[in-house]
Specification:
Shape: globular
Number of domains: 2
Radius of gyration: 22 Å
Order of helices and strands: HHHEHEHEHEEHEEHEHHEEHHHHHEEH
Helix content: 40-55%
CATH architecture of the largest domain: Alpha-Beta Complex
CATH topology of the largest domain: Spore Coat Polysaccharide Biosynthesis Protein SpsA, Chain A
CATH class of the largest domain: Alpha Beta
Low-confidence stretches: 1-14, 385-395
């Protein structure tokens, strides 16, 4: 079987390998060209204090004592601030509840996890039931709001309605964290907010930051409609869309940030292994095919460069360098919008793509073969059959 760097030719003598690289490059731009952004200065000016006084912030938290000071500190710094901040303590053993109370949040101790629910959906559902605001903002504990960030997301929701989600700008400090680059990229590609002409219209939602009215949330069934979903964010976006509600997404640069896996490489692998294979099953067929073509193009360019460097490839030097530099330029543009990935993942992009391939196959093993994943010390079984989302809402 020919390798990715072999000099395949069609009848016209055009190299098929290089053709795949070019097609993959164009597929990448179709999937992610410009991530829509919120504008904090405009949003603060356009919102009254009364609007934010109707906002309930809900934070599901399991062993998040190390993250909550950053998030709650950023919420306390918002001016004006929300009506209330509710932290749902999901069986933590590290002092999460005490940290949350010390920083002014209302703490709810989660009831025992019912059968058929994931921990996060159950925590979010309880927080929504306890909330008194007309607008619900769900935030993951690793999120931080920049100045004017809360006003920005609430303003955008007031203009767009339905469900708004924000993919936070990924703020990283240690080299291994840059291995999240490909995962972050595919997460944005799959939701579909960043393609040409999309204007933020979304096929799903980003779980770290969700905004909706309390009325709309309960009308569609809330997190109860997606109670057994590992990727409740993608599923919840589809529930809103199926109910006729608009679904929009945006990037969080300058407004909303997170640091995803600060506790080491093992946490990064566990987190992405939990998500990736399940996420691919939720992407629309055309978008999934385009994503596969893009990944194949990148991997083809990477393979040809590695073979050229060790002197075993048959591709011409021009083809190798053009293909490699095309994707390096593309990734530089994409990753600048998504996080502070820096220069080395762009220059040496075969490394984060190799990490993606390894973790993706681990995710397939966990989700397709073993039918269970692990996160935050809790084993999460996957349902044997995926329940249709419409039926889930009726339950």
């Amino acid at each position: 079987m020919p390798t990715a760097g072999a000099k395949w030719c069609d009848a016209d003598g055009v190299r098929v390998g290089f053709f795949v690289v070019v097609i993959g490059w164009f597929a990448g731009w179709w999937l992610l060209s410009r991530v829509p952004r919120l504008t904090p200065s405009r949003s603060v000016d356009g919102l009254s204090e009364g609007a934010l006084a109707s906002v309930s912030v809900i934070i599901p938290a399991r062993n998040e004592a190390h993250n909550l000071p950053h998030l709650l500190g950023s919420l306390n710094a918002q001016s004006p601030g929300p009506r209330e901040v509710i932290v749902v303590d999901d069986g933590s053993t590290d002092g999460t509840a005490a940290v949350a109370r010390d920083l002014g949040a209302t703490v709810i101790q989660s009831a025992p996890l019912p059968d058929g629910w994931t921990g996060k959906s159950w925590a979010c559902s309880q927080g929504a039931e306890a909330a008194s605001g007309a607008v619900l903002v769900f935030l993951d504990a690793d999120v931080r709001l920049l100045e004017g960030g809360l006003a920005a997301v609430v303003d955008a929701h007031q203009r767009l309605g339905g469900l708004l989600s924000v993919q936070p700008y990924h703020r990283m400090e240690r080299p291994y964290e840059r291995l999240s680059a490909v995962f972050n990229t595919i997460a944005v590609m799959g939701v579909g907010v960043a393609g040409p002409g999309r204007e933020g219209r979304s096929n799903g939602a980003f779980g770290p930051c969700l905004v909706t009215s309390t009325e709309d949330y309960h009308r569609v069934g809330g997190h109860g409609a997606v109670r057994d979903e590992i990727l409740e964010d993608l599923a919840l976006g589809k529930v809103f869309a199926e109910s006729g509600q608009p679904v929009h997404g945006a990037g969080g640069r300058s407004t909303v940030e997170f640091r995803m896996y600060p506790q080491g490489l093992g946490q990064l692998v566990e987190g992405w292994s939990k998500n990736m294979a399940s996420g691919s099953a939720r992407i629309g067929r055309v978008r999934l095919l385009a994503t596969i073509v893009w990944v194949c193009g990148v991997m083809g360019a990477s393979a040809e460069m590695v073979q050229w460097l060790v002197g075993v490839g048959s591709a011409s030097t021009a083809d190798v360098w053009v293909g490699y530099l095309l994707f390096a330029a593309q990734l530089a543009v994409m990753w600048r919008q998504l996080g502070n990935f820096g220069w080395w993942p762009v220059v040496a992009y075969p490394i984060p793509f190799a990490a993606f391939v390894v973790v993706f196959f681990d995710s397939l093993w966990l989700t397709v073969v073993r039918r269970r994943v692990r996160w935050r010390g809790r084993t999460i079984p996957l349902p044997e059959r995926r329940r249709p989302l419409r039926r889930a809402r009726e339950g």
